[in-house]
Amino acid sequence: MQVDTDIPGGNALTEILGDGQIAVRPDLRDTIGNWFYWYFRVRGAAGRRLTVQVAGEPRTPVAGRGPTVSVDAGRSWRWLGAAEVHDGEFAFTVPQDCDDVRFSLGMPYTAANLDAFLARCAGRAGVVRHELTRSEQGRRVEMLQFGRIDGGAEARVLLTCRHHACEMMASHVLEGAMERILAADDPASRWLFEHVEFVVVPFVDTDGVEAGDQGKNRAPHDHGRDYGPAEGRYASVRAIRDLLREPQVRPFDVVLDLHCPNIVGRTSERIYFVGSPDADNWAAVQLLAEELEQAAVGPLPYRRANDLPFGTAWNVAGNFVTRDERAVPQQSIGWFLDDEPAAGMHAILEFPYANAEGAEVNATTSRAFGADLAQAIERYLRRRVPTSNR
Ligand SMILES: [Zn+2]
Q: For residue 149, what pLDDT is reported?
């Protein structure tokens, strides 16, 4: 039996304790404090009963539906269920014909998933793949462009994801949104595809996603906090700043940055927008929120009452001050856009790992929510862009 993390997104400190017994804990690497992401593979265990001990600080690092398992080399995933975890331990019998079983905190989504998605879309519509920049480790940072891309768009939308590498469930939402828009097979998606330019940065921390880093609270500060007054530390963030300030094109009307929250705490099992300090912008976010509340007819609910305006819960100024020695404020993309005079509406959307108010979050329901989000963007823009013919 071999246990390893040598797979895209792999992360864990693992140890084989005995006959089918494995101990794992999140590999924190350059994380300040604790975080909870892990993902590993077991081979050579077909037909065997495995016992896995998951340890972490300050508590067992599993989300509200227990760990996830894949018996097809990471192509599809399911939750094992919270009831399967006892004192940080769960058991799993590997199917007879399975030589690659994987366990994780969530449902991993890496560059290979995006490639597979784009390959599925290839026959339908044009997605232009650009190299936004090169990452610190020399990887191509992907930027996708689709919809009305000939310069005649009535609105422009920027979607970003994985400022925090581990927050993989948000990627399933992003895929669902793109799938809906690219389908262009109903009035809403067709309008989006024909009138709106979409720019998508699916993996802001490309290195972290592939390496399986936590990404969140990376020292000295993470990608999500790289929008402070100093020049960005990360090439991808510097390139996104340039996108947001391109002088030759109209500014983005909507910028949405997708995240996943902590797995514990009051805001861990709901979908919600997070506000930046600018009150006028927050009022605009509320218009999108209104549309999303109505559009979220899929399996996952969204309610405006769950949003976090600036100054509430964890969304307070202290959370945006760097913990490193330089003690300069480290801002999110939202704060950065608050100070850009021409910036359009911008918000962070937090999407949970396992439960949205009791409904199961998985790859399928996340994609369905992404489709609802696309619909909400359409309604929001058509309220704001009266020139377009309905
Ligand atoms: Zn995040």
A: 95
